[in-house]
Amino acid sequence: MTLSLWLPPDAFLEANGHDELESLRQLCTYDLTSVSHGLRHAYGLLAILAKHIGSSQRIQVLMSPTDYTPWLVDTYFTLDQLRSKWPSIRIDHLSSSLQSVLDLARIVQTPATVMINSQEKCSSLLIHLTTEMAEHLEKILPSDEDHDTEVELLGLSFLTLAGLSIQSKSIADLVSLQLLPRLDGLVTEGELFTLMPSTTDLGVSTIPCFKCMMGANLSRRDAMTCCDEPLQEHCQYVKAMSRLPLASTVTSYGVNLRDSIFCHLQNCWITLAASVGSLRRHHKLWCQS
Amino acid sequence: MAPTSHGRSLAHDRDGIANGSLVQGPPPSTLAAQLVENISAPPRSSRPDETAELKRCFAIIEKIKNQPALLTTAAQRIEHNHMLIYVYARVVLESLRWDDPFADVAHLSAEALRAINFLRMTIKETPNVLLTTPDEQHFIFRGRSPLWLWILPKVLKVLGRDKCLALTEAIEGLLQEFFLVICHTGSLWSLLPTYVKCIQECVKSECSLIEPYQACTLNLLSTLGTPGRSSSFVDHKGHDSESMATT
Fold first, then answer.
1. Per-residue b or e along A183-219, where b marks 16 or more CB atoms closer than 10 Å to that residue's CB
2. Is B26 exposed, middle or buried (0-12, 13-18, 19+ CB in 10 A)?
3. pLDDT digits over A34-79, tens only?
4. Cis bond leading into A8, ω under 30°?
5. What ipTM was predicted for this assembly?
6. Is A138 touching B (CB cutoff 8 A)?
7. How far is it, in rounded angstroms, from Cα A59 to Cα A107?
8. Which residues pair with A32 in a beta bridge?
9. What is the pLDDT of residues A230-263, one digit of tens each?
10. Of A25, A29, A148, A229, whose CB count within 10 A is highest?
């Protein structure tokens, strides 16, 4: 048995005054053959909207982010919950979903009331997707492809979550509870710096930033200028971090947690970069043999 | 400004707005002519009027290919591209039998990709074709809905299938191209909320369909004691073990 679906659904056709329901129905019958088929389809459609929300001023004029972002966050959340009940489903859209949710996490930081309601949900989703991506990283990254996109994505997720953790204790708690324990397995001792691939620009340039931000002798202004960062988003993040009025608004608990998270993320990042470098080297050796 | 197959500028149909994505490769009319050349005779149909319609369209495609100057106005080009999309959808997209267990999946995917690329180029060349509604009885299987609404479900049918995951990027690219073309063409701006609403309703509909089915299936598996869930999604890479197909 397959489940038939009308695309577009009747609700849409009726609402938009299309009076040819029957003839359109004949053309639009769509069979979902499996749960994963349905989820892949839905994720694919969401990606189309998520990619463009807030992407340019022209589109923002035509489509206000405040009109669509809460819906996107809610729907990604719903799909994530549906998918979590079927862990066996192959996640084809994990990277693109994480990218979309990262973009949404940036958009929902605006002070509009409607966005504030989506912030917690978006953060929770981001934590879940980041955890999942980190957990399955070695299996997700095929050893014969360039991993830079996924590595950057995961690094940006860590950075974003670190920033969100400073702003909200509940998010910091979630990160501590859900993400950090899962990352423990990734952190190893030893000569991590020597393992780090020199081609991973983000990895190389991120570490001085972490150090600066954690270091007692450097001001945040120094942190802004110390790295010649090739990745624009990261620069923006560092600048945003430098504007946070840390001392006046966050508790000592928050500051300590921030330092703890940064320290942890730094180790994770190095390990992540090292694991990718290791994969590359293994693949190269395998090809040579 | 890139010339089209008809030797005219694209800007005539773009409301003067350049989106930096000019048509590359063979123009739609050439691609359509190649399609016609690859098909020695129109596909057989139980309906003689359908065969006659395709023959008529094929003749027009050949004629315009040989004499592109016959299309003198932007409206004529839109009308011609409308017909090309109709033919391509009928001959290629609708003929793909994804559910046939004996089908050559590589061939189906190649055909689908060809159709997607064709649509992409045609819509880039004449964005306003998306809003075209045909005269009554002009095309047998076209109905009277705007072209975007007629073609969208045919594209969506390919998305997400286990057999053709490699097409996902191309399909998403095409639908994003729709999105950008609508945003960059003043006369299509009014279509944007409708297009977005359509995608939203499709996703809502899918979620509402999956949710109760999922609950029902999980209950059934639980009752039967069947281990339908795995702790690792990657263990099942490439498998549809959670198929809705039930015995």
1. beebbeeeebeebbbeebbbbbbbbbbbebbeeeeee
2. middle
3. 788 888 889 989 988 888 876 777 777 778 888 889 999 999 999 9
4. yes
5. 0.75
6. no
7. 14
8. A3
9. 333 443 444 444 333 333 333 444 444 445 445 5
10. A229
What residues in B contact A62, CB-CB < 8 Å? 183, 189, 192
Can you give the pTM of this predicted structure? Answer: 0.72
For residue A16, the chain B residues in CB contact (below 8 A) are 194, 197
DSSP A273: H
* Token pair 């949404």 in the structure block, residue: A104
Of A267, A264, A216, A212, the C-alpha closest to A241 is A212
A90: contact with B, CB 8 A cutoff: yes
Say whether residue A17 is in contact with chain B using an 8 A CB cutoff. Answer: no
- Which secondary-structure segment (H or E) carries A6? strand A3-6
Contacts of residue A219, defined as CB under 8 A and 6 or more positions apart, other chains included, come to none
Do B207 and B158 meet the contact criterion of CB atoms below 8 Å apart?
no
- pLDDT attached to residue A198: 33
Shortest Cα distance from A100 to chain B (angstroms)?
14
Distance (Å, whole) CA B174 – CA B149: 14
